[in-house]
Specification:
heterodimer; A: 203 residues; mainly alpha; three-stranded antiparallel beta sheet; 7% strand; B: 637 residues
Chain lengths: 203, 637
């Protein structure tokens, strides 16, 4: 039942203290320890050693500058995230109690609220590897989360950002992102929904 | 080592729920920096599942007085009642604040925030369970963390990510700033500030089996403790009964709420023996003790006989899929166990620190039993002890604590900063940190921090965990002394400047050792059992001698203990209302401390000054008036 993370810790604590990687929660919710494990982007705390065969290869995420061992520079990733206005935009005065939202409206964007910003999707995307200016799947997922939130008024602004040449149209629908997501988000589908919203300007 | 200098009005240390909530308030009022050793969204707030309680009364009758009562009772009467009242009253606004920020709460059929039941939350002072917990699927903490981070992005909050705060600078009786270590470069930074807010979370990593993240090493409390701030109620640590075997990952209480049963190696539903009426739904501390009793008496399962089973296999598979997705996923991923067919191995897991940096209800850190305020120093969240959790935290109240007191900390820190100037920094402000780091990195061989930490964790589980005795705690004290000696010779193998997490792990171990000592000494001295602190040799609660908060202070000769009274302005420990102390029955003319007049309906009753903003969501009771609310008994609005 040892995780790849336990293996990395074992090496760090008993063999080579300089081995460096990020980690915190160790059960798949904080998003610190995304890395390339036997060729696939995974969270080291969610993959068991016994599932991997005799040889295990761990590498830093692709497409982001490597700082040390498995630690990559996350700043380009968060910079794209910040550009898509990843927050609720609603300038109406807030009511005394909650803004109403039907269960159906709430369900519309449920899937993309699961994102933990681990970067597994973005760094599995061949378009992102080739073009670091591309926003990447994670940023689009976080735009989707608000574009389809009935309380939000910033969809037009966000869609304009994503209509950019480095926006959603770069997506080549390879589904790598969906495979990589440790939270099971249907990433490619979310990107398609944003494309459709752009085509029809309707959310 | 020369240090870079920065100057801010407010510096917030930590970017979990409390830190981010504080940052939203502080950064719109004052020049604010948030210093955090993790990227904000990695914080352990994100691991909370269940919900956040607030008496919105969206789905059934409820009010915040009942919530306050539950909090006080759940905390085994060690709760400061004025603080609990503030938390439960402000809970309602806190939930609406989050909703307005975009928090995706689950909804009722008519589009309001949905609410569900949670252990310990009742209506009419224990008469029955109430639907009070506001939630976002099974990831409420994740959504709170994301929402608060999003709002900080919107507001342009200044973050120093992957900076470790290793020292607090004080000038006389005021905070002057902090010293931080930049992970990427190994450089030191001095942050001069008028207000410093600690929001660094818990310190469960002093135990082996814990639901806490690797990062939860008590750096904030540790830094304060070394600078002379006492630690309050450290002996109170909550052990959650259902941690995944060996890993400690939390399986939500929902599993038992839906009908899950705990079984020993013989398949016996053993809780029937310990709590014949409520069985598996007994309070967390009681269930944890029962599990350990089974294990100690040889009825544990597995080759080492050291776990029991959480059995949900008799439940409808549809219910398991719909309502218990986490337990299914964790059991499958980590143990290869299929919960629909077999029991899931579990054991109690160190979960939550009730104790920490002592603060008042305005999140100001206090230095002694007389509640002397340290100017400009604030704390909120798990690292703080207000105390709203007393001896045992009620489920869901941790998420509430961080947003309510995080907000208060942010506002108060900014307002304090607006009224004062910067104080002079001490000479060579980074000197102490430089010497500490050089000392740790100064050994060319020896024992690694991981080995010492591992021994600390195993011993703390055995000697200062669910069951405690004078003998065990005394042994632990002796052992801590020897761990400390080993720590003085610790070997940091990594010699690089940048991203030296090997060095940081050694630093963190130092904080854990300090805090473990305060916990053990406080626990050995408290010769009673209350909430999360269970003494086998003193199994009863002793209100006569121990209805008081402990304060552990660092001295040259070890930990020195001091005590301060619990604020009881609502309910006595024997469950009776406090009447004589507050001069007669509670009424609009005689409100308890800090309370607004109670009439919310402007009906013309005696509450001469209607409160400016009625407590939203609370509804006057007509059927069975609250015994605390003089107004409500005469006014049903």
């Amino acid at each position: 039942m040892d995780r790849v993370l336990d293996l990395l810790h074992w090496v760090k604590w008993n063999v080579d203290g300089s081995l460096t990687f990020r980690r915190s929660c160790a059960h798949g919710v904080c998003g610190s320890d995304a890395m390339l494990i036997n060729g696939a982007n995974r969270l080291a705390c969610k993959v068991l050693v016994r599932e991997l065969g005799d040889q295990i290869t761990v590498e830093p995420l692709r497409g982001l500058p490597v700082n040390k061992d498995l630690v990559v520079d996350m700043e380009p990733f968060f910079a794209s995230y910040r550009e898509v206005l990843p927050y609720l935009v609603n300038d109406d005065p807030a009511p005394d109690t909650e803004r109403r939202q039907s269960q159906k409206e709430r369900a519309r964007f449920d899937d993309t609220t699961k994102c933990i910003l681990c970067a597994a999707c973005t760094t599995s995307c061949p378009v992102f590897w080739a073009d670091e200016e591309y926003f990447g799947p994670a940023a689009i997922v976080n735009a989707h989360r608000f574009i389809f939130d009935s309380r939000d008024q910033g969809a037009a602004q966000r869609l304009t950002v994503l209509n950019d040449k480095e926006g959603v149209w770069r997506c080549r629908t390879t589904f790598n992102c969906t495979d990589a997501c440790p939270r099971g988000i249907k990433v490619t589908q979310a990107i398609q929904e944003v494309k459709r919203a752009l085509l029809f300007r309707k959310v | 080592m020369t240090a870079q200098q920065h100057t801010f009005d407010v510096v917030i240390v930590g970017a979990g729920g409390a830190g981010l909530r504080a940052a939203l308030e502080a950064s719109r009022r004052a020049r604010t920096a948030v210093i955090t050793k993790l990227y904000p969204t990695r914080s352990h707030t994100g691991a909370a599942q269940g919900g956040m309680c607030a008496a919105l009364a969206n789905v059934e009758e409820d009010n915040w007085e009942w919530h306050t009562f539950d909090t006080i009772k759940g905390g085994d009467y060690l709760v400061d009642q004025d603080a609990a009242e503030i938390m439960c009253r402000e809970a309602i606004e806190a939930v609406y604040d989050l909703e307005h920020m975009g928090m995706p709460f689950n909804r009722t059929g008519d589009g309001r925030i949905d609410q569900r039941r949670f252990g310990g939350h009742t209506h009419h002072h224990g008469a029955g369970a109430v639907r009070r917990s506001c939630f976002a699927a099974d990831r409420t903490g994740h959504m709170i963390l994301q929402t608060l981070f999003q709002q900080n992005v919107k507001q342009g909050t200044v973050f120093f990510d992957e900076f470790y705060v290793l020292d607090l600078l004080l000038a006389g009786d005021r905070a002057a700033g902090v010293v931080a270590y930049e992970l990427a470069t190994g450089e030191l930074h001095v942050f001069r500030a008028k207000s410093v807010v600690f929001c660094t979370g818990g310190y469960g990593k002093m135990f082996k089996i814990t639901s806490n993240a690797h990062a939860l090493t008590g750096d904030g409390p540790g830094v304060c403790y070394r600078r002379g701030v006492p630690m309050e109620d450290m002996e109170f640590f909550q052990f959650h009964p259902t941690g995944l075997y060996r890993l400690g990952v939390l399986l939500s209480e929902a599993a038992r709420g839906e009908g899950g049963i705990l079984r020993n190696a013989d398949g016996e539903a053993f809780m029937e023996r310990y709590a014949p009426t409520i069985k598996d739904l007994a309070p967390r501390d009681m269930v944890s003790r029962a599990i350990y009793s089974e294990i100690r008496e040889g009825r544990g399962a597995g080759p080492d006989g050291d776990y029991v089973y959480l059995d949900v296999s008799h439940l409808d598979p549809g219910v398991i899929d719909a309502k218990l997705p986490d337990i299914t996923e964790f059991a499958r991923t980590y143990l290869g166990v299929e919960p629909k067919k077999e029991g899931v191995p579990i054991q109690p897991t160190a979960h939550y620190a009730m104790g920490g940096i002592p603060t008042d209800v305005d999140a100001r850190v206090v230095a002694d039993a007389a509640n002397t305020v340290i100017g400009g120093l604030y704390a909120a969240g798990e690292c703080a002890c207000v105390s709203v959790h007393g001896a045992n935290r009620l489920g869901t109240n941790s998420l509430l604590d961080i947003v309510v007191f995080g907000k208060r900390a942010g506002i108060n820190a900014a307002e304090h900063a607006a009224g004062v100037g910067h104080v002079e920094l001490p000479e060579d402000p980074a000197g102490a940190v430089t010497r500490m780091l050089e000392g740790l990195a100064g050994h060319a061989e020896g024992e690694r921090a991981a080995a010492i930490r591992g021994d600390l964790q195993v011993s703390m589980d055995e000697k200062a965990g669910v069951y405690r005795t004078e003998t065990l705690l005394k042994e632990m004290e002796v052992e801590l002394a020897s761990l400390r000696e080993r720590y003085a010779r610790v070997w940091v193998q990594d010699t690089s400047r940048g991203y030296n997490t090997d060095l940081l792990e050694a630093v963190e171990l130092g904080f854990l050792l300090d805090l473990a000592e305060t916990l053990v000494v406080s626990a050995r001295t408290r010769t009673e059992s209350r909430g999360g602190h269970f003494r086998e040799d003193h199994p009863a609660r002793d209100d006569k001698n121990w209805l008081k908060h402990s304060l552990a202070r660092r001295t040259d000769s070890g930990v020195r203990l001091d005590y301060k009274p619990v604020t009881h302005d609502q309910v006595r420990a024997d469950g009776e209302e406090v009447l004589a102390e507050r001069g007669g029955p509670m009424s609009p003319a005689n409100p308890p401390r800090g309370r607004q007049p109670l009439c919310r309906s402007r009906c013309g009753c005696d509450a001469s000054t209607p409160r400016p903003r009625p407590s939203r969501g609370s509804r006057p009771t007509t059927s069975r008036p609250s015994p605390w609310t003089g107004c409500w008994t005469s006014c049903t609005g």
